[in-house]
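Protocol step 4 of 5: obtain the predicted structure for the target chain.
Materials: sequence only (see below). No template structures provided, no constraints applied. The aim of this step is simply to have a reference model before the mutagenesis design in step 5. Sequence pasted as it appears in the construct record:
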Amino acid sequence: VNGGRIRGSDDPYGIGLYLWTTYNDNQSSNEDNLRANVDLTTHITPWLSLLTRGNISNYNTKIEKEFLGDGVGFSNGYYGLNTSRYKSYRLQGLLTATKQLTGDIQGSITLGAETNKDQIGDLISASTNGGLSTTNPYFYSLGNSVNKPNVSQNYRPARLTDAIYTYGDVTWKDMLTLSYSVRKDYNSTLTLANGTGDYSFV
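Step 4 output (C-alpha cells):
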C-alpha cells in the first residue's frame, strides 16, 4: 500500500532488490536506420561509360528508462531519455574508358569525383533530478521530476570530404599488368595543407 521494496529483516534472503528491479525497472530502445543507394550507368560508346551514384544514411535512436521508485510511497523513481541523430550523404561520378589498344595491349582508365558530407549530429541526454513526484509515481516524464531535470546536449561536428581521382591499368597479353592510382582529397577537418591530401601508387 505504501509502496517501496522490502528491506532489512523483511528481506531475510536478500533478494528484495533483485526482484524489485526485475519487475519494476524498464528500458526501451528504438532505432530508425535508413540506408539508400542509387546507381545510374550510362553507356556513352561501346568503350566509354559513366556511373553516377548517390548514397544517403540516416540513423536515429531513442532510449528511455523508467524505474519505479523503491522508497516509501514509491519515492526515488527515475525517468531518463537519450536521443541521437546522425545524417550523411555521398555523391559520386565515374567516367571509365576500356579499349583494346593493340592486338596485345588492353587498357582502361577511370576519372572520378565525389563529395561526402556528414551533417551535424546531436546527442541529447535528459533525466529526472531528485526522483519522480510521489503524487503520480507511475507518470514517467521529465515534467514529473521533483527538481529541475538534468539536461545535456552534445554535437558531432559536420565534416565535408571532396575528392578527385584517376586510376587504371594496362595489360599485355593477359600476362603482365601495370596499374596506377592518383587521388586528391579535401577534408574540412584537416588543418594542414589547406585541408588537402594527395595519394598515389603504381
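Step 4 remarks: Strands lie at 25-45, 48-67, 78-100, 105-118, 121-132, 145-156, 159-172, 176-187, 196-201. The helical segments are 16-24.
Proceed to step 5.
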